Amino acid sequence: MRIRIYKNASDVEGGDILKQLTIVGKPNVGKTLFLINFAEFLGIKELEFEVSALDGLKMIKRYPIKKAIEELVDNNIHKTRQIYSIVINVPLNKGKKSVKFFDTVGFIDNIHPEQDIRKGISYTLQLIQQTDIILHIIDTSAVDKNLPNSLSEIDFTIAKFAEIKKGYCILANKIDLPEGKENFEKLKLLFKGNLVIPISAKYKKGFKEVKSFVISSI
Ligand SMILES: Nc1nc2c(ncn2[C@@H]2O[C@H](COP(=O)(O)OP(=O)(O)O)[C@@H](O)[C@H]2O)c(=O)[nH]1
Ligand SMILES: [Mg+2]
């Protein structure tokens, strides 16, 4: 999806074409923590999120980094019910490019009983189709477990759905945890043919590589 930005949009020069990036994955894999810490890594000090409720209502919420982590990152599944998006100026070799990042409602394998979550998931599918870059987060610490954040069929479905895009890659998150390294090798084999980058959203590891990937896709 391409959006023409007009002069009054914050941070973005008039007439720029805004690239869009969607962060997807199961609940609790670290999507929100990745977005917040990656934004900080790219030089953002205060996060200005556009929050879209599933009924289409939009509002702006501003958070300093620490506050965003406190309020938005959680062990509860489906903390993120609305779609949060943020425009970030990604620094390039020369100049910068504005990218709109979307944080999404986590995918589950079955049909969720709550209508809000189902709507969020279907909106996420639309975003995958419409945006230029897809960062698919997998929790390396939960690959072999049977938890809401474990690797499952839906991850392979997302990969099939998204890999036709030039800007698709898998972020193998929580590499800081003991199971991380071993499972990373497994993931690389399971998703042969896709780019898989090991990261720790918590400790900001692998972010240089993710930044290079984003820059090469915009
Ligand atoms: N050890 C570790 N924990 C992480 C990492 N990334 C996320 N978490 C934790 O995983 C949980 C879910 O994170 P969150 O960003 O809310 O996941 P989301 O549901 O995918 O948005 C939180 O308790 C985070 O602190 C990581 O790289 N390492
Ligand atoms: Mg979240």
Strand content: 25-35%
What is the element string, with H for helices and E for strands? Answer: EEHEEHEEHEHEHEH
Major β-sheet annotation = 9 strands, mixed
Please report the first level of CATH classification, the CATH class. Answer: Alpha Beta
Number of helices: 6
**Outline:** globular
CATH topology: Rossmann fold
Question: For the record, what is the CATH homologous superfamily label?
Answer: P-loop containing nucleotide triphosphate hydrolases
Plain-language structure description:
There is one protein chain. This protein has 218 residues and is of the alpha/beta class. It has a single domain (3-217), classed as Rossmann fold (3-Layer(aba) Sandwich), CATH 3.40.50. 31% of the residues lie in helices and 27% in strands. The protein has six helices and nine strands. Strand 7, helix 4 and strand 8 (167-173) form a beta-alpha-beta unit. The longest helix has 16 residues, at 115-130. The chain is globular. Residues 1-15 have low confidence and may be disordered.
